[in-house]
Amino acid sequence: MLQQTQVRTVIPYFQKFMEAFPTLQALAEARLDLVLEHWAGLGYYARARNLHRAAKILMAEYGGEIPADLEALLRLPGIGRSTAGAILSLGFDQPAPILDGNVKRLWSRLHGLKERLDTASAERRLWALSVHYLPRERNAEYTQALMDFGAKICTRTHPRCLECVLQDACLAHRSGWVAELPVARARQKPVKFSYWLLLRDEDGRIYLEQRPPVGIWAGLWAPPQWDSREALEAQCQNLGIRPETLTWLPAREHGFSHYLLYYTPALAQLVEPLPMLHDRPACWLKPKTSSQLALPAPVKRLLAELA
Ligand code: SF4
Fold this sequence. Notes:
Elements: H1 7-20, H2 24-29, H3 32-39, H4 46-61, H5 70-74, H6 81-92, H7 101-110, H8 120-132, H9 139-152, H10 171-175, E1 191-200, E2 206-210, E3 221-222, E4 225-226, H11 229-238, E5 247-248, E6 252-255, E7 260-269, E8 282-285, H12 297-306
Parallel strand pairs: 1-7
Antiparallel strand pairs: 1-4, 2-3, 2-8, 5-7, 6-7
Helix pairs in contact: 6-9, 7-9
C-alpha cells in the first residue's frame, strides 16, 4: 500500500483492509472485486491485484507462509528487489538491501550524486551503496531506521540538516547542494485525454461499465470513455442522443505514475431507457450509493458531485 503513497493516506485504508482480510487465507479466498472495493480511492490498483494473486500463490505453494528467500519472493507478483529486501530484513532480520525513493534521495545527497537517478547507471550505483552500507547485525532495525530517516530527516523539501547525524559526512550539505539533489527528471509526464459519457436516467442513476481485466483501472467501474470528443458524440448519435443536448462539465486532471490524464465528462439526461453500450458488465448506480462498488477515485469524486 505504501508504494507511491504517503503513510497518512494509507492508514485508514490499511485498517479497513486488515479488518476485511485479517489473514493471508482470508485474502486468498476473497473475490477480486471485493479486494478492489476495499482498495478503491487508494489508486495504483495493480497493487491490489498483485497482493491478491500473491496471497493465492502463498497459500497454494508455501502453506500460507512467506518464504525467507530472495528468489522465491521475487517470483511473487508485485514484489521487486526493494520490497523483497524490506521483507527479508524487516521480517527475517536478514542482511538484504532496499532502495526506495527515500533511500535514493539519501544516497544521492550523502554522496553528492549530480546525475539523474532514473538511468540504469545511477540505479546500479545506488544499489551498490545500499549493499555497501548493510550492517552485519540488527538488519531489521537498520532498514526501519533507513526508511524513517528518509521520511523524517532527509526529506524531499526542508530536510533537517542541522539536526542530522550525517551532516559532517554529507557531501550535499558540505557543498551547499542539498536543494539541488537529487537531480530532477528532465521529462514531463505525457498527457492523455479522455471523454466520459455520464448517462443519467430519470431516477438519477448513472450508467457504469466494468472495465476490462487488463489496463488502467482493470476490473473497476467507470462511465464509458472515448479518446476524443468526436468519438463520444458519434456514439451519442448512435444512441439517439443529440450531441447539442449534452452538458459538458469542466475538464479535470488525474495523475498516474507514468502519465497525466485530462478527462472531460459530458452529462446526458435520458428520458427513456437505453440498451447496454458495450459487451461487458454494466449497471445503473445512484451516485449516493457509490461506496457499494469498486470505483477509481476520479469516478468516486465525480459521482459525489452529482449526488
Ligand atoms: S545533512 Fe541534510 S542532506 Fe545530508 S543526509 Fe542529513 S538531512 Fe540529508
